[in-house]
Amino acid sequence: MRRILVTGGAGFIGSAVIRHLIRNGQAEVLNLDKLTYAGNLASLASVADDPRYRFVQADICDRAAVVRVFEEFRPDAVMHLAAESHVDRSIDGPSAFIQTNVVGTATLLEAATAFWRSLPEGSGQRAAFRFLHISTDEVYGTLGSEGLFTECTPYDPRSPYSASKAASDHLVMAWHHTYGLPTLITNCSNNYGPFHFPEKLVPLVILNALDGKALPIYGKGDNIRDWLYVEDHARALCRVLECGRLGETYNVGGNNERTNLEVVRAICDALDRLQPARLAALGLRSFHDLITFVQDRPGHDKRYAIDASKLCGELGWRAEESFDTGIVKTVTWYLENDWWWRPIREQKYAGQRLGGGKAG
Ligand code: NAD
Ligand code: TYD
Asked: Does any domain span residue 209?
């Protein structure tokens, strides 16, 4: 059984990865997470009592804590997801992004390299060790109406978030080329699904609609993202960890391009169908009536779209969820799991505008 150190495992994607690893009996997992506003151990309730799962609360910038985790847990692999992840928050306060995404990744790389080098030369454990860095398609910048991001697309990050992730990708590549650390990188498109912190478009719109609040669409709503169901992503990451070629990058995408307006309309359609009583209680004809165009995000990237053919061709991965089925699953999950999101909306983040723009 592989011993996998997951950083950021209390976040949206990290918790999906841990649930996937434990459910499939593939690994013993140690979750290292600082529990920032975005970290939530409730997302791991289904695995919390499993003897193969452990949690350590620590900051990836805390060198002593990170070194201790490597020495005590002695991982076979690292899946590095800990990050500040929201573009709008990076506009309001970039320094936390530089600290965690850049300094934290460097700290983790140093600790991983020291641990990997301490393994006996020629041993199976040293040969099998892997460091998988999870990154974003936003490092490639923005697309016009044509073309897709491939693994060869030049880096052109344009927000403090994407610049900090680009820097972390470069550090990982540098550690591979300079020290020989057995690294892998994935760059994925926008994820959606259960346990998504409601500051991001999909969960924010679902919960605002249920509250009868405005559904804020930045600019004209014609920016395009390529939507990837989070459980498809978790499977892709496990596949890359097991079978990816060392030093390589793999793009992960859902092949589901939608404008933001189309995304919000799909959520409203699902809610109109699933929540007629709520609609009536709110005195609304349709949830579509809540759609509100608001001031655009500064530096808003126009279009992201991923070419995932390397991952599909080399490693046989496919996205199983289409956007049309995945968005209904996601809406249904939020309707059935208010125990998870209600404390967040009431105590952590109620949906106010972030990222410097005006609310409406
Ligand atoms: P998230 O914001 O939901 O979770 C991040 C987790 O990292 C949280 O549990 C938080 O507590 C933890 N964390 C933050 N700073 C930390 C620190 N200094 N030390 C230890 N833990 C810390 O993020 P997510 O959406 O799950 O994203 C995971 C990774 O995937 C990130 O690296 C992100 O850049 C990348 N990514 C996300 C998306 C997306 O659509 N969500 C798309 C592409 C790439
Ligand atoms: P988001 O979920 O923040 O992800 P990212 O910025 O990483 O792509 O935003 C997705 C898209 O939705 C992006 O184009 C910005 C837009 N958006 C809105 O129109 N309204 C909102 O309230 C939010 C949070 C995002």
From this structure: no
Q: What is the CATH number of the domain that holds 79?
A: 3.40.50.720
Ligand 2 pocket check for 260: Cβ under 6 Å? yes
pLDDT range class, residue 356, cuts 50, 70, 90: confident
Collect all residues with Cβ–Cβ distance below 8 Å to 327 and sequence separation of at least 6. 192, 202, 227, 263, 266, 267, 270
Nearest atom within ligand 2 for CA of residue 219: 19
Please choose, from the candidates 1, 3, 23, the residue with its C-alpha nearest in 3D space to the C-alpha of residue 234.
23
* Tally of domains in the chain: 1
Q: What angle do CA 241, 242, 243 make, to 5 degrees?
A: 100
**Could you tell me if 97 and 69 are in contact, meaning their C-beta atoms sit under 8 angstroms apart?**
no
Whether the CB of 305 sits within 6 Å of ligand 2: no
pLDDT in tens, 259-292: 999 999 999 999 999 999 999 999 999 999 999 9
* Residue 53 a catalytic site member: no
pLDDT (tens digit per residue) in 226-248: 999 999 999 999 999 999 999 99
Instruction: Tell me, yes or no, whether 271 lies in a domain.
Output: no
Domain region containing 254: 2-197+227-258+300-324
Residue type for 258, please? R
Ligand 2 site, residue 162, Cβ cutoff 6 A:
no
Q: Which is catalytic among the residues 161, 229, 250, 304? A: 161
Minimum CA distance residue for ligand 1 atom 10: 39
Q: Is residue 23 part of a domain?
A: yes
Residue 39 alpha carbon to ligand 1 centre in Å: 8
Annotated catalytic, 138? yes
Atom of ligand 2 nearest to the CA of 85: 7
User: Does 182 map to a domain?
Assistant: yes
0.90 exceeded by the pTM?
Answer: yes
